[in-house]
Amino acid sequence: MRILEKAPAKINLSLDVLHKRPDGFHEVEMVMTTIDLADRIELTDLGPRGGISITSHNRFVPDDHRNLAYQAAQLLKERFGIKRGVSIGITKVIPVAAGLAGGSSDAAAALRGLNRLWNLGLSLDELAVIGAEIGSDVSFCVYGGTALATGRGEKIRHIEAPPHCWVILAKPAAGVSTADVYRGLKLDHVRHPHTGRMIEAIQEKSYEGICENLGNVLESVTLKMQPEVAVIKDQMKRFGADAVLMSGSGPTVFGLVQYESKVQRIYNGLRGFCDQVFAVRMLGDRCELD
Ligand SMILES: C[C@](O)(CO)[C@H](O)COP(=O)(O)OP(=O)(O)OC[C@H]1O[C@@H](n2ccc(N)nc2=O)[C@H](O)[C@@H]1O
Ligand SMILES: Nc1ncnc2c1ncn2[C@@H]1O[C@H](COP(=O)(O)OP(=O)(O)OP(=O)(O)O)[C@@H](O)[C@H]1O
């Protein structure tokens, strides 16, 4: 039997860090939404007593226990005493180490797909709790859609979809380590975004309100490690994006664009000096994972 799952990327429309916790993680308040840029996960049953095998044609994606989709399969096998093997094929589209939760979304898609393949009968809420053991972004990715994520990112409150718009993404050549970015954060020097206002703007379907309230406290940390982020932000604004921000721990920069007529010009302009550029729609609805 073969199961296919879509694993969409996320962007953080707003990302605030409240404080560092005794367990080393940071307490966050993030508004996240899925976009139409997705990896494909193909799960094939390998029969009794088999192991977990990962295939991907991207040299930056680990093919062993370091892969988050592998960890998802291992966790379910152990927890539910599954004795069957599985092959996990990953068609990578989401840039790696980019702040777009590519690995987390692959793990979430593996959880959803294996739940079907092995007839585990788990709800999305149960899968999201299991996902939190793999990484902070996995719970959100289990559901997709749009949500406020709190705690270390694993507490999810669903909110409605933002109004449809275009998202232009541009990723500088090198990736960044999320742990390094959190480590570099000095909380007494940041301007906190207004999470409440972002949620209100989404609920009111106010595109202007969303643009006005974009904010990410991690941006200034990554900017120091990768000055190219500032250059890309500048170019995106100059080519005509309505608002721009770095996603997650970066270094990918996204620009919001309301009218399709502007998209091609911004995309072409950025392609001049950045290899990985994408123009996609905001998804925002949970049902759009299918
Ligand atoms: C930057 C974001 O992607 C925004 O959505 C997330 O906050 C990070 O999510 P993630 O990549 O799934 O993070 P994890 O794999 O759980 O953690 C990677 C590392 O980031 C740091 N980390 C992560 C989440 C958090 N709330 N506080 C942290 O300090 C920790 O050092 C941790 O060891
Ligand atoms: N399925 C996977 N796809 C991509 N990278 C993976 C995967 N599994 C593990 N990794 C490892 O995770 C690291 C971070 O990759 P990922 O693309 O998930 O980062 P990210 O988009 O910055 O994540 P986040 O936004 O959740 O912080 C990579 O350098 C890679 O070694």
Automatic annotation (TrEMBL):
Residues 67-145 form the GHMP kinase N-terminal domain. GO terms for biological process: isopentenyl diphosphate biosynthetic process, methylerythritol 4-phosphate pathway; terpenoid biosynthetic process. ATP binds at residues 95-105. Residues 198-274 form the GHMP kinase C-terminal domain. Its EC number is 2.7.1.148. It comes from the Bacteria. Catalyzes the phosphorylation of the position 2 hydroxy group of 4-diphosphocytidyl-2C-methyl-D-erythritol. PANTHER family: 4-DIPHOSPHOCYTIDYL-2-C-METHYL-D-ERYTHRITOL KINASE, CHLOROPLASTIC. Belongs to the GHMP kinase family. IspE subfamily. This is 4-diphosphocytidyl-2-C-methyl-D-erythritol kinase. It comes from Metabacillus mangrovi.
